[in-house]
Specification:
By secondary structure, the chain is mainly α. It has one domain (2-155). The protein has helices spanning 2-32, 42-70, 77-112, 118-155. The longest helix is centred in the last third of the chain and has 38 residues, at 118-155. The chain starts with a helix and ends with a helix. 31% of the residues are buried.
């Protein structure tokens, strides 16, 4: 369990670093060189793929861990509500975050081909990055709650 937990955190940190670097890189090139397009390269595509895989892994880990905890019959009702609340919040917001970041990368391609104004990408990418930071906080809370509940069950 702890290996998967550490892997989840490693994937969250690495995907955040790659996504934020590719978004910031595109915006720096846009503003520094006063170009009329957002810099979009293979690193952004790689970042998008790593991000999708990482979020899918973390989401399924949270859902699986939550389902295993819920299946324990002698769990207090307050812990069940907390676990189910964390699971539903993470599920909906992970899907929204993947949609926003994925859309930002698609829009970056449209901006690169001069179909859209670069500010569409900048606004959506920054919104996606802020939402991803909030999602990381929620994922950490869900993982922490699951581990604390499992530790309290083990000690009994």
């Amino acid at each position: 369990m702890y290996i998967l937990l550490y892997l989840s955190y490693l994937l969250i940190i690495s995907s955040f670093a790659i996504v934020s670097i590719s978004i910031i890189n595109g915006q720096i090139i846009f503003f520094m060189f006063n170009s009329n397009y957002v810099f979009f390269n293979n690193n952004a595509l790689f970042g998008s793929m790593i991000y999708s895989v990482a979020q899918s892994f973390v989401l399924f880990y949270i859902v699986g861990l939550s389902r295993a905890i819920v299946s324990i019959s002698n769990l207090p009702q307050s812990n069940l509500k907390k676990i189910l609340s964390n699971k539903s919040k993470n599920y909906s917001h992970t899907m929204l975050s993947v949609l926003i970041i994925g859309s930002a990368y698609i829009i970056a391609g449209a901006v690169d081909n001069r179909f859209l104004d670069p500010y569409f990408y900048i606004i959506l990418a920054n919104f996606g990055l802020i939402h991803y930071l909030i999602l990381i906080k929620w994922q950490h809370k869900a993982l922490k709650d699951c581990v604390l509940i499992l530790k309290s069950i083990e000690s009994k």
